[in-house]
Write a structure and sequence with these properties.
Layout lengths: L6 H10 L1 E6 L3 H18 L15 H6 L3 H11 L3 E11 L7 E4 L7 E2 L4 E6 L10 E3 L11 E2 L20 E2 L9 E2 L6 E6 L4 E3 L8 E9 L4 E2 L5 E6 L8 E2 L8 H16 L8
Parallel strand pairs: 14-15
Antiparallel strand pairs: 1-10, 2-12, 2-14, 3-11, 4-13, 5-10, 5-12, 6-9, 6-11, 7-8
Length: 277
Amino acid sequence: MGKLLTQEQVDQFYDQGFMYPFDGISKERCADLVKACERFEEEHNLSAAFFKLKGHCVFPEAWDLIADSHILDYAEDLIGPNIMAFGSRFWIKPHADGTFVSWHQDSAYFGCLPHDMITFWLALTPANKHTGVLRVMPESHRDGLDHYETGEDEPGVAEGEKKNMLGRGQTIPDMDEDKSVHMELEVGQFSMHHGRMAHASGPNNSDSPRYGFSFFLIPPHVESTLDRRPARLLRGVDEYNHWDEDLPPTPQNVKDQIAGAHASNAQYTDPKFKLAS
């Protein structure tokens, strides 16, 4: 018996590759995170969604969130008592601007082996079919799937349609949408999916921006397939020393943290970094 999950639930997760919904944080805390994103954009003329891997290293509110003991209890039931945060990202879809996320596996682009990563996706505003909810392909985590790259990036940056929110516009072709599962969440709820889970999301067709926050947790035995990179130990001990240490965001180091997060983006977006699925 785990702390929060039954053995049946754990078995289901590793069989299907995902689980939802679970109650995470209060609606008030979600609203505070949205306000933090809005303040940041006003102060720095930069969207919180810009940071593809290290959002928690820029936002104190996100730094605290990924260490939430209630959420970590779920993670412990899936990956054990020693837990590190590899990365995190705010997902912000403005009203009716057409931005979407194509079908992909994070494992093909994050540069981590073995594939023991769990992604937590937290709804800061309602996440449903109308707002562009995360959808997954059951059992797709069992194999590495072939991707092609469209070369798109954040809207307004790359050539082409400029609506794909992924760093390289990476896409798995010919997915059977009829088999996909829309993981609808209320504010403050979260879903969990395996690092190899194929997932995607459509545009936000509601009258308000849609905010989500995802963070990627690993046990310390997972290694970086790129250069040595930073992560953060959240619970337990690290007996492997595969990772350097992420620094917490403070008012004094915010510019340096932004620069560091920008550099981390490059390892995800630049095609010269060949990553394995």
